[in-house]
Amino acid sequence: KAVLHWYKRDLRLFDNRGLSMAADKAKSANIPLICLYIVSPQDYQAHFTSPARVDFELRTLEVMKKDLDALDIPLVVESIDRRKAVPGFILDLCEKHQIRHIYCNIEYEVDELRREAMLINKCLDKDISFTPVHDDVIVAPGSLETGTGNQYAVYTPWFRSWVKHVTQNPDLLEPSEKPGKNPSGARNALKALFERSIPPAPANKLLSKEEKKRMAELWPAGEHEANLRLNKFIKERIEGYSDNRNIPAGTTTSVLSVHHSTGTLAARTSVRVARNVNTRQYLNDGKKGISTWISEVAWRDFYKHVLAHWPYVCMYMPFKHEYSLIEWEYNDEHFELWTDGMTGFPIVDAAMRQLKSMKYMHNRCRMIVASFLAKDLLLDWRLGEKYFMEQLIDGDFASNNGGWGFSASTGVDPQPYFRIFNPLLQSEKFDPDGEYIRKWVPELKDVQGKAIHDPYGRGANKIAAKSGYPKPIVEHKQCRERALSRYKAGLGKD
Ligand code: FAD
Question: What is the ipTM of this complex?
């Protein structure tokens, strides 16, 4: 007999609610705990998961396998081509090892919930208990309501309510124990499971050997690395976070998103550790850098709540239905120049090249390039959303969809569509010395002063032209007018 923990986006041993409950169950019955992770090429394809992300997960599984092995807990990692076959595989595993209890942490996206519903039905038939647990979020969706009993669609009042709820329910931030050792004899009884190795990345998500090496150096995997990064950030940068977080040059933020999104670090752990150095009762109180950082981590919860309450956002629909009728430009050339960082807008190009190279982009730049795609190029924001997922190592459906909705004005944010980012002003404000641009757009490294933000418009034509840097592909002022009239027409306000 045994208990199963099914790992998904919770790739850690410490502070993992589902895993801890599974371990407690196994311990109380004095039976072994078995852990499972499923590699699903069809899901990767359907959800545009980036190869860098798949590689990060597989490297993390190697770290976990070692850590679990030291506790005599086997980690079974199975690659299953067809996602419909997943429940059948899990039930076979249960039958083989007499597993009567399955635990897992909930993923809130529609496909994942459907898969769970299918498994729950099959478990009922076989008299196996299936326990899905809230762990990925600090506050479970459905816990917060507006005064009229609705779900919040605006972040600020939602956040006030979130802070109050966490303060009134301090257990939400308490850590969960790491599992203890499996009973003696487990290693022998489950020998075949311990001998299984981790499968390679599926053919549709392979990285080249060089890219694999580069990614491993740039993004070391696993929960130990995540905790090191968290502690370093808290020690060295968190206090300056609220002043510096919008500056894309250098490292001004925590760069923990890949760990939050794969679950090598629980958002709960991050908030708890930050709160502990802040020593205030309310999470939005105390040192500005710390409370601001906590409020950013809370955005992650917010977008998951939105996803859970309005699941149609998973189906290529804008949160605001009335924005479905905007007539987009379908200009493939513009889209390609945007992805290649060749638009002639230095801040946009720097950011898009950072994405291609690091598989990560600073938050301010995500907003700038997303607004540029949707408003200046007037391309369907869903193309950008998909491209981000295909590139990002920290790709997370809810945060990405929320961020794109925010930038294209089609999402939950109350910001009206006529507030349109000016890429030049954004560049001057957030990269005043052009440090970020010079790093990612080497063609412009010799451009001095303010010309870095607009080389052709500010007298650096020669340097820019000689280096092959493109002229702006569109004119912002005209684009602004076009966006305003198309959005207006789409909303029937003409
Ligand atoms: P920090 O500033 O240190 O913030 C701490 C943590 O809070 C982050 O690690 C992240 O988990 C969370 N967080 C911060 N800002 C946000 C936010 N606006 N929304 C949700 N969570 C947030 N984030 C992702 O994790 N995955 C995505 O796929 C993603 N796509 C985005 C797309 C667009 C168009 C935009 C505008 C934002 C997107 N974000 C996404 C949010 C944000 O840009 C990243 O979380 C952040 O840049 C990660 O850097 P960091 O870890 O240094 O963040």
Answer: 0.99
